[in-house]
């Protein structure tokens, strides 16, 4: 969720009489199916290109056809679908913890004919030691507010979500670009993960969850791993960064 995308309650959207797919919005050539997760306000933001706009801009700035993209936190599936549709990398593998979003995401992929290029799994990726079989996930009225974390102990409906080992996922996928927006969970993941497979990272920080010190810690991990922020397509809370040397390599190829 970008810094100008405020969580709002998901309102009802009109559906066709027979319950079939209806296009509710369109962004960068990608159709978004109607669902209970789209309010009128969110539909307007998608149509105007303001929904997760910074992440999309950053991804399209760095993703190339020879890339394999790991997306952690798929949301409604739009960001990954736009990457797959426009940048056309070899593969986009998306992971989303919210089980209620998975049918909506897959419907979006199918509606746009992207099933061969992008897929989604309902799982929490874990990079630290002693990975549990499942982790509690907090569902709230707005999916943008749903998260693994609940620091303010807000009311939520808790579901158990299966986990997968991040290192094993990377070994199988061999990703070159990381796109991550997991509502504050990025701090713990970054502190334990191996960033060496990636040449570029698009990441949203959530200082409202772990404070400014936590955001600085995330940025320090990226810098220490050799990544430099692409100033033209980055903000304070959404970074697109490329491993130093990778940009020169791309220009020389």
UniProtKB/TrEMBL annotation:
Keywords: Methyltransferase, Transferase. InterPro entries: FkbM_mtfrase, SAM-dependent_MTases_sf. GO terms for biological process: methylation. The keyword Metal-binding does not apply. Residues 90-209 form the Methyltransferase FkbM domain. Coiled coil: none annotated. GO terms for molecular function: methyltransferase activity. Pfam families: Methyltransf_21. This is Methyltransferase, FkbM family. It comes from Phaeobacter italicus.
């Amino acid at each position: 969720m970008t810094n100008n995308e405020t969580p709002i309650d998901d309102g009802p959207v009109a559906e066709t009489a027979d319950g079939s797919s209806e296009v509710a919005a369109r962004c960068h050539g990608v159709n978004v199916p109607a669902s209970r997760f789209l309010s009128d306000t969110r539909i307007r933001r998608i149509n105007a290109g303001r929904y997760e706009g910074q992440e999309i801009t950053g991804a399209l700035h760095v993703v190339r056809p020879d890339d394999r993209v790991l997306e952690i936190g798929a949301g409604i599936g739009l960001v990954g679908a736009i990457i797959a549709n426009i940048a056309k990398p070899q593969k986009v593998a998306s992971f989303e913890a919210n089980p209620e979003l998975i049918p909506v995401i897959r419907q979006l992929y199918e509606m746009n004919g992207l099933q061969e290029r992008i897929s989604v799994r309902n799982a929490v990726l874990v990079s630290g030691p002693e990975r549990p079989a499942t982790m509690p996930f907090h569902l709230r009225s707005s999916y943008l507010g749903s998260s693994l974390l609940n620091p303010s102990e807000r009311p939520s409906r808790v579901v158990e979500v299966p986990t997968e080992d991040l290192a094993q996922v990377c070994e199988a996928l061999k990703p070159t670009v990381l796109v991550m927006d997991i509502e504050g969970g990025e701090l713990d993941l970054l502190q334990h993960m191996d960033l060496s497979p990636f040449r570029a990272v698009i990441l949203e920080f959530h200082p409202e969850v772990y404070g400014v010190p936590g955001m600085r810690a995330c940025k320090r991990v990226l810098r220490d791993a050799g990544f430099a922020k692409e100033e033209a397509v980055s903000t304070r809370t959404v970074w697109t960064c490329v491993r130093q040397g990778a940009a020169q390599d791309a220009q020389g190829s």
